[in-house]
Amino acid sequence: SGRLLEAAALMLPAASAICLILWFSVRRNLGTPLGLLADAIDRSNHGQGRVQVDWQSGDELGLVVSNFNAMQARTEQQEQELLVANQRLNELAGQDELTGLANLRALRRRLHLRSGSGQDGGSLLYVDLAGFKDINDTLGPTAGDELLRRVGQELARTMPADGLLARVGGDEFVGFIERPMNEVPLRAMAE
Question: Which of 115, 121, 136, 184 has the most CB atoms lying inside 10 A of its own CB?
């Protein structure tokens, strides 16, 4: 019985050392990557961007980390593509499809911004193509569309740099100029 106690007393530190080694190994090989993953997920959920986890191993946990990093990279790329697509949609929402000029929505937005800026004045020029319906009916919609494009280009060419030209209806254009102008230059632009 004495020898048994001596043997147990000798084995206890060895068993404790083995348990300690196992604990460090499990913590390093399992706890560290899981903690890194949890931190990356938490940071992503709180709007701190997409975080890559810096952990590599050839086991299943390494595969999980690798796939998480790939998912984060794909998500970031898709978010960037979505931002670009949204910007393009906003541009198109304010653009006349036929002429490429601003449309009524863009003109309203510009006038709204101008009215809230506290700046005085500005000039509006309204152009309605007289007889356009007859041209469209006689020569066809293709010729009418071409006429609208050319008139739009000509009007745009005469607009000052701070101006905005919008096609607001079938054959109607509105020019907005940031500064007040008298009627004579506006009439000359219209002609």
Answer: 136
